[in-house]
Amino acid sequence: MAGASILCATDLTSAGPRTVDLAIAAAKAFGVRIDLVHILDDTDSWWPEAPEAQAAAEAARADASQYQDVLEAELQKERDRCVAAGVECETSVVRGRPWRVIPELARERGAFLITIGAYGSSGSRTVDGRVTHELVLGSTVERVIRAADRPVFVATGNAPIPEALAGTKWFVGADFSDSSLAAVSWAKRAAARVHGELHIANVVIPAGGDEKPDEERNWRQVLRDQSKLEAGKKLAAYIDEHAPGAEPHQVVSADYASHAICKAAEAVQADIMVVGTHRQGVLGRLLVGSTASRCLRISHLPILLVPEQAR
Question: What CATH number has the domain bearing residue 25?
Answer without folding.
Answer: 3.40.50.620
